[in-house]
Amino acid sequence: MAFQTKLSEAIQLKAKCELGEDEDRQQQVIQIIRQWLVQQPHLHQIRIDDYGIVCFARGCKYSLEKMKNKIDLMFTLRTALPEFFSGWDPMKPEIQAALACGSFLPLPDYDQHGRKVIIIRPGCYDPYRFKPEDIEKANFMISEVMVLDDEQMFVTGMVIIYDCQGYTLNHLTQRPLSLTKKHMYYLQSAPLSPKTINFIRTNSVFQTAYNVMSTMVNEKMKQRLRVHGSNMESLYKEVDQKILPKDFGGDGISLEELTDYWKKKVEEKREFLIESENNCRVDESRRPGKAKTAQDIFGIEGSFRKLNVD
């Protein structure tokens, strides 16, 4: 069955003008990528539908070579990062608890530029009670479910808001530096990168974390970082106030309601998430040339167990 877009006419026009997208080009790209996947023995286990291919196409502005590289890289990373992409059962007690924290909360409405807005809350959980790996698994599961129903963001882009309220030195020191490095590597390798990353409700610990994170992002990403601190008016210039949660002075639903919404949404998609874990594995034993290991990709991380802060 041919891919059928659910985009509004206005967003379809944007895709046509900015990405050169039309129905014929979509179908051609889907066919080429399908043929290419058949020719890649290490990717035979991968299950990617036409919608997924179109998402990659939009994120890569219909560059076939970039698409091939991104598809290979994304699924290679998902295989090499069991910390994030294994044990995807939302009913596991540790995942249930992580989902209830509300660490990763996409907003239901788009901003004034039609962009998806995602709130990330690194200080919303007790760092001594939760493993950061479980928080990240819950976050990536929410992201996976979000993408299922959010075709628009691959045309209009997304914006991230880091709400740093509650973030402490313990959050920083209890998270292995290697985990942060892998997370940042994955995010910068994804076909869709944020238009801006906005930090709000920051405190004294934030600057230390920000300095560490800044060393792990490329120059292009550094240009997209915005620190608003407690100046919410500054944030409103970047993201339409009306769509923001009540907690941020907006008219949208609260962070608590968003947390409940996404927890239920992920639970409803339990079967899909368990299957997607198995359907996204690269068979490195069949890769042409040299197999890729986590050490090849990320280097030796053994010395980065915990971040020491004076």
UniProtKB/TrEMBL annotation:
A cellular component annotation (GO) from this entry: membrane
Domain named CRAL-TRIO: residues: 92-256
Organism domain of life: Eukaryota
Task: Return the SUPFAM superfamilies for the record.
Answer: CRAL/TRIO domain, CRAL/TRIO N-terminal domain
Check the record and name the InterPro entries matching this protein: CRAL-TRIO_dom, CRAL-TRIO_dom_sf, CRAL/TRIO_N_dom_sf
Organism this protein belongs to: Daphnia sinensis
Instruction: Indicate what this protein is called per its UniProt record.
Output: CRAL-TRIO domain-containing protein
Q: Which CDD domains match?
A: SEC14
Q: Which GO terms describe its molecular function?
A: phosphatidylinositol bisphosphate binding
